[in-house]
From TrEMBL:
GO cellular component: cytosol
InterPro entries: FRMsr_CS, GAF, GAF-like_dom_sf, Phosphatase_reg/MetRdx
GO molecular function, one term: L-methionine-(R)-S-oxide reductase activity
Domain (GAF) ranges: 42-145
Family of this protein: Belongs to the free Met sulfoxide reductase family.
Listed transmembrane segments: none
Organism of origin: Orenia marismortui
Entry superkingdom: Bacteria
Pfam families (UniProt xref): GAF_2 (PF13185)
Official protein name in the record: GAF domain-containing protein
Length: 157
């Protein structure tokens, strides 16, 4: 199936799940499962949430991961520092990459920003180099928009 069609199907699932529920943790858990199970060649999909002036591991699918990431560290920390999506073709060439899973070779990180405040990131890894492109970025940013609009972000853990 073409990538565009896969993402259109994912968007339908995401919209359906979020329209029925606004609990942030439930939505993060379901979205990580939808992405992990519907995207080809990914070995990790999930979220980190901004708390205590750092990113802290949230709901995800895949092998266990780094629990805390400082702003400016690794792909996730750099994404929130720059407040922009990062598409990394080869994580081994990314200065300061944090290797949670040695099998990961490429990564995309979409920051979650509400009213110019960082709330977290969507992070997806792949064992394939050059796995992610601008089409992935377009759809994953749209998924984050739906998540922002449909979830209650006044969480307290």
């Amino acid at each position: 199936m073409k990538k565009d069609k896969v993402y259109k199907n994912i968007l339908l699932q995401v919209k359906g799940l979020i329209s029925a529920e606004n609990n942030l943790i439930a939505n993060l858990a379901n979205l990580s499962a939808v992405l992990y199970n519907n995207l080809d060649q990914v070995n990790w999909a999930g979220f980190y949430l901004w708390q205590e002036e750092q990113l802290i591991l949230g709901p995800f699918q895949g092998k266990s991961a780094c629990v805390r990431i400082e702003k400016g560290k690794g792909v996730c920390g750099t994404s929130i520092e720059k407040k922009e999506t990062l598409v990394v073709e080869d994580v081994h060439q990314f200065s300061g990459h944090i290797a949670c899973d040695a099998a990961s070779n490429s990564e995309i990180v979409v920051p979650i920003i509400i009213n110019d405040k960082v709330k977290g990131v969507l992070d997806i890894d792949s064992p394939i180099k050059n796995r992610f492109d601008r089409l992935d970025q377009k759809y994953l940013e749209k998924i984050v928009e739906i998540l922002i609009e449909g979830s209650n972000w006044s969480y307290s853990l």
